[in-house]
Amino acid sequence: METAPKPGKDVPPKKDKLQTKRKKPRRYWEEETVPTTAGASPGPPRNKKNRELRPQRPKNAHILKKSRISKKPQVPKKPREWKNPESQSGLSGAQDPFPGPAPVPVEVGQKFCRIDKSRKLPHSKAKTRSRLEVAEAEEEETSIKAARSELLLAEEPGFLEGEDGEDTAKICQADIVEAVDIASAAKHFDLNLRQFGPYRLNYSRTGRHLAFGGRRGHVAALDWVTKKLMCEINVMEAVRDIRFLHSEALLAVAQNRWLHIYDNQGIELHCIRRCDRVTRLEFLPFHFLLATASETGFLTYLDVSVGKIVAALNARAGRLDVMSQNPYNAVIHLGHSNGTVSLWSPAMKEPLAKILCHRGGVRAVAVDSTGTYMATSGLDHQLKIFDLRGTYQPLSTRTLPHGAGHLAFSQRGLLVAGMGDVVNIWAGQGKASPPSLEQPYLTHRLSGPVHGLQFCPFEDVLGVGHTGGITSMLVPGASEPNFDGLESNPYRSRKQRQEWEVKALLEKVPAELICLDPRALAEVDVISLEQGKKEQIERLGYDPQAKAPFQPKPKQKGRSSTASLVKRKRKVMDEEHRDKVRQSLQQQHHKEAKAKPTGARPSALDRFVR
Amino acid sequence: MNVNQVAENLALSHQEELVDLPKNYPLSENEDEGDSDGERKHQKLLEAISSLDGKNRRKLAERSEASLKVSEFNVSSEGSGEKLVLADLLEPVKTSSSLATVKKQLSRVKSKKTVELPLNKEEIERIHREVAFNKTAQVLSKWDPVVLKNRQAEQLVFPLEKEEPAIAPIEHVLSGWKARTPLEQEIFNLLHKNKQPVTDPLLTPVEKASLRAMSLEEAKMRRAELQRARALQSYYEAKARREKKIKSKKYHKVVKKGKAKKALKEFEQLRKVNPAAALEELEKIEKARMMERMSLKHQNSGKWAKSKAIMAKYDLEARQAMQEQLSKNKELTQKLQVASESEEEEGGTEDVEELLVPDVVNEVQMNADGPNPWMLRSCTSDTKEAATQEDPEQLPELEAHGVSESEGEERPMAEEEILLREFEERRSLRKRSELSQDAEPAGSQETIDSGSQEVLSELRVLSQKLKENHQSRKQKASSEGTIPQVQREEPAPEEEEPLLLQRPERVQTLEELEELGKEECFQNKELPRPVLEEQQSERTPNNRPDAPKEKKKKEQMIDLQNLLTTQSPSVKSLAVPTIEELEDEEERNHRQMIKEAFAGDDVIRDFLKEKREAVEASKPKDVDLTLPGWGEWGGVGLKPSAKKRRRFLIKAPEGPPRKDKNLPNVIISEKRNIHAAAHQVQVLPYPFTHHRQFERTIQTPIGSTWNTQRAFQKLTTPKVVTKPGHIIKPIKAEDVGYQSSSRSDLPVIQRNPKRITTRHNKEEKL
Fold first, then answer.
1. Where is the composition biased (Polar residues) (chain B) (predicted)?
2. Rounded-to-integer distance, Cα B26 and Cα B43, Å
3. Structure pTM?
4. Exposed e or buried b for every residue in B710-731, given b needs 16+ CB within 10 A?
5. Which residues of B640-651 are buried (b: 16+ CB within 10 A; e: fewer)?
């Protein structure tokens, strides 16, 4: 979007201004040199989410960024004070300027702590306490190790910043492309495919490959970075959705009648007739499940590792054509025409939760990568962001002039909405914050109405499928700058991919473990525990864990008469009883105290309150 | 029986004789004889009669005839009930030495005890067993620390290997080393000459001796000192124990008094010498006073005092005792006056006064005195709150009034600031609108009013209304302040809001009340500008994610249905430069169309109905055990009576509250995922008694996905490591550092014999 030149300013100053805008040190985004397979990391050491060792990535060639990094001195890694250098001298007489292990900033270590210490534990015996202490010590140690290895995540996310007061939404793609280096500029491209109708698209998990399918049967897969085409076919049938399976070698295409699976050569491998009239596809990578939503109202889970249908759930809400997955807990979100969004797991026949989001039907749903926020847009032209952490309440709402037909979250929490032929992107404060809908971060106009949206993983790129083909946009700061070389390595070779495949299959998560709170699996099943206890008591005839009844100690000098024994027993019993009564009274007090402030004094007008 | 009777008779006869004797003394011998003769005969007769029936009759050896000549062998035992002892017979009139030996022998024979019977076999065996058990337990107890250590060890490595010192001592190295080169030999020669140690012991004998030597005298001195200290301690302890045991109350009273006196004296002295320390002491006394004031120790309210009070009427002593206690109380509760006494006296009188009045009044007084505005505000706000609670109807006016009052001096300043802010805001607004116009020359469709700045979620319409109210109030306030203010345009939503919304006026005011309370808190904390804060919150409604939740709950309290029906789109403006190129009218038409399309489609009611059904379905069902026709007439159309039904209805216990209880727009399924539950832990492992304890130990993931390589290795180290191809021999005493097995138990026992014996006792009990 070019702004009109302001009157009274001739061309050179304007150009100058543009240049300053472009050359502004604060505005840049990460880019990559043209990756080649030669740059692939040779078998990096084992580790995953923590990325203790990050495979080398010839990514930040940007000098400015480097200077920025150098501007920040290693404050957190500040060396410990040299207390007594003489004692540290070794054989050579040289002193270690940084004696001892590197200190770890507390807040970084805190990030990796898993034990919730806020919950009070019941009093425990010495033996139990020692076990707990061991567990806590272990946690601390591992968290410190993890925090220390955080140092290896050298890449920083890119960003776009306007000059003082300038709206970043007014910066158009051409400006960005002009300002970035050639390799990054090459990532912005348009594929003009006007012939085969609106396109759906999907990036592979590594972000290296792109598959797209046109409504009129055009299916293609390519390495979009090098623009190397892998296959291109026409299935001679309407294509409704397309999705990569666990790797770029397999491709699921929802065609007019059935679901087909192709390999990267375009050879049809399977035709799954049990999934018919599929409208949307989602792939759950850790469970190897392909979730399909069909026109007939069924949500079907297909295990692609064994080729079995795990569950076919009837949503009982008519045609399903809005679906997205929650990457945090692998729950499938379905949008319905009655304004609700339902959450599904293959283990349950009914939805885990149902949320009333809109007055009209739901048009699009997207969940961010942390599983905290859900964005929905409905026929009532509203865009809402919901909190998924137990409350399911809208955090922010905005009415869009045309309503959003497609939504997608990026890895770092940017939200994109496709409204007609316009794409709006909103950004939040940081990674874990919801996108603020006040001001769009970027906007872009396409040559046709949007039909598919996805952010490319590990690249600051947004892929948009529309009637005119495919557009690849540059969105600075969209994706995670550091990738895990063992989990999803964009530069992996075929051998590495095979290795990864085997490991991923070994670590496949059973489908029935999908639930709203995955942490709940690490909890004891209290209900069956109590059931088991009850059964044991029934079997034994007594409770082995019950507190033994009080037995008065025998005393001498005639004080151990039967009467006095009974009296002593009575005393203890009464004391316990009193304690109980006291506790219950306290609880009552608490309740009353709580009830008081909310319940105001009754008024005569109460009768009108319905 | 017989014997008794006989004895009685004998006694009787004796008495008679005794009684008779003085009387009959002057009588002749004949008479006397005749009389006694009759007696005897009578006696004999009685004897005969009594012995007629008894089986075990005994013959009394008695001489029947009197004879003048009494033989010395026929000794009568009459008159002396004593037994004859053998020693008495032996004893001559005069003690003779020849008999002493016999006597001694006799006593020796007497003192010798008989040999006891041997115990029976079982008991002997049991004793043997006990002794054997003790012995073996003692021997085995040396392994206890080893076992404990192994149990707690993170990892055990088998076969056990004695840890060899990493570096062999230098003596060993040297012993196997010989001087070869001429230089070395020469050096060795030198060393030998000077009697320097070359091989094994690196120390010279002298050095060793000096190391080993320890001054004997010193050791003795030290020992003596220790002994003395110990003795002193024991004396002191014994004394204390003795004194503690004394039960005399009087004594204790005296002691206490003495102590008090002493303390006072010391205090006086301290005051002279070290005033600082005295002050501290004074504080202590003050504290004691406080304690006394708090407690009822000397207030004549105890059991003793009550009993004394009953007695006091009659007992002077009791009265005195009571008086004494009261005086003590007074003494203790009296304030000590140290510094300038004249001032203090005044204060004291004030104190007394203040004691009479409640604390609240005092606070007010203090505030009135002090010019601290902070204190003032909090105080007034308190009172204000109380007032508002009194009548919620008159709240708004009162509230506005209160605000203007409480602001006081700071008000003008705040208002100025408000104005400034507003101006700024307006300017920025204008700018932005200009910008947007620039951006979209085709036509910005929305009229950008002030309301357009805020994002309205329909679920928060109530709060929105609230804010508007605030604004209007603010305007009122400003008009009072005679400062002209530009009216902010109210957004259109008011028209669109359904009538339902405007209904509970009171509720809104209530909400306001709480809002105000919150704001007042803010005031106390930071800046006293409620209106400004309001504005800020307007501008950035998303900055406070916790606010809507609170609101939600309250609204839930009010009416769920009402809340959901307020879901009409209330914001139509977007302060965003969208590049939509829709005509204004077209857009409006479109919206109108949508509204019409959804008019009949009551999504909310359907959802509520669904939710109600889900709630009903998840509720535990009551069990009805009534049998129709049982105990009463049965048949078609007859129903069991209500009373009966009530009696046989077993009410299901109420389950835990639903997770979506306070979330009107959500249905959360309460069903358990049994497939996932199969993977969960169902039995608590041994040392844990509560599931939360165990959960805490498994909360940290141990997989390599979540951990660094090192941490993963450490977390998954095997508990036991064995070397393949090696024989794992049982543990030996030498392995763990004990000496040879035969006497290995000794050191342990000597180290702590007491502990071991106590444990054995325990084991025996078990």
1. 444-455, 562-571
2. 25
3. 0.56
4. ebbebbeeeeeeeeeeeeeeee
5. beeebeeeeeee
Distance CA B403, CA B397 (A): 10
A203–chain B nearest CA distance, Å: 23
Residue B521 sits at the chain A interface (C-beta within 8 Å): no
- 8-state DSSP, B491: P
Which residue in chain B is spatially nearest to A51 when comparing CA positions?
Answer: B708
* Greatest extent of chain B over all pairs of C-alpha atoms, in Å: 175
- Amino acid letter, residue B747: P
CA distances from A544 to A533, A547, A548 (A): 10, 9, 9
Three-state secondary structure string covering A447-471: CCCEEEEEECCCCCEEEEEECCEEE
Backbone angles phi, psi at A102, to 5 degrees: -65, 135
Mean pLDDT of A445-456: 94
Lowest mean pLDDT among A189-198, A314-323, B266-275, B575-584: B575-584
Taking an 8 Å cut-off on Cβ atoms, the answer to whether A47 and B708 are in contact is: yes
Mean of the pLDDT values across residues A285-299? Answer: 96
pLDDT of A223-266, one tens digit each? 999 999 999 999 999 999 999 999 999 999 999 999 999 999 99
On the question of pLDDT at A589 being above 70, the answer is yes
Are A149 and B572 an interchain contact pair (Cβ–Cβ within 8 Å)? no
Quick one: tokens of B45? Answer: 């007769």
Look at B689 and A545 and tell me if their CB atoms are within 8 Å: yes
CA atoms within 13 A on the CB side of B598: 23
Burial class (CB in 10 A: 0-12, 13-18, 19+), A152: middle
Do the Cβ atoms of B574 and A398 come within 8 Å? yes
Chain A residues whose CB is inside 8 A of the B700 CB are 114-115, 135, 138-139, 142
Q: Taking CB atoms and an 8 Å cutoff, what residues of chain B touch A164?
A: none
* CB nearest B557 (choices: A49, A434, A598): A598
Which of B508, B603, B694, B717 to probe by mutation at the A interface, max A CB count within 10 Å? B603
Domains in chain A, CATH or no CATH each: 106-115+127-152 (no CATH), 168-492 (2.130.10.10), 501-540 (no CATH)
Q: Mean pLDDT in each 10-residue stretch from start to end of chain B (766 residues)? A: 48 48 46 66 84 60 60 57 69 68 87 84 95 94 90 87 64 70 86 70 70 78 93 93 88 91 89 86 86 79 83 84 85 64 41 40 41 44 43 42 42 54 64 50 38 40 46 46 40 39 39 43 39 40 41 41 42 40 59 61 86 91 87 84 89 88 91 90 90 91 90 93 90 73 43 43 44
Q: B238 vs chain A: nearest CA distance in angstroms?
A: 25
How deeply is A346 buried, as exposed, middle or buried, from its count of CB atoms within 10 A (0-12, 13-18, 19+)? Answer: buried
Q: What pLDDT shows up at residue B455?
A: 37
- Locate B572 and state its tokens: 């139509």
3-state secondary structure of A80: coil
Question: Any idea which residue has 């599929």 for tokens?
Answer: A278
Enumerate residues 6+ apart whose C-beta is below 8 A from B650: B622, B623, B624, B625
* Cβ of residue B494 closer than 8 Å to a chain A Cβ: no
Neighboring chain A residues of B548 at a CB cutoff of 8 Å: 393-395
| C-alpha span between B482 and B415 (Å, rounded) | 11
Which element (helix H / strand E) includes B612? helix B603-618
Three-class DSSP labels, A163-223: CCCCCHHHCCHHHHHHHCCHHHHCCCEEEECCCCCCEEEEECCCCCEEEEEECCCEEEEEE
Q: Residue B130 in contact with residue B136, Cβ under 8 Å?
A: no
Average pLDDT, stretch A187-208?
Answer: 94
Contact A401 B610 (CB under 8 A): no
Inter-chain residue contact A124 with B435, CB threshold 8 Å: no
User: In Å, how far is B685's CA from the nearest CA of chain A?
Assistant: 11
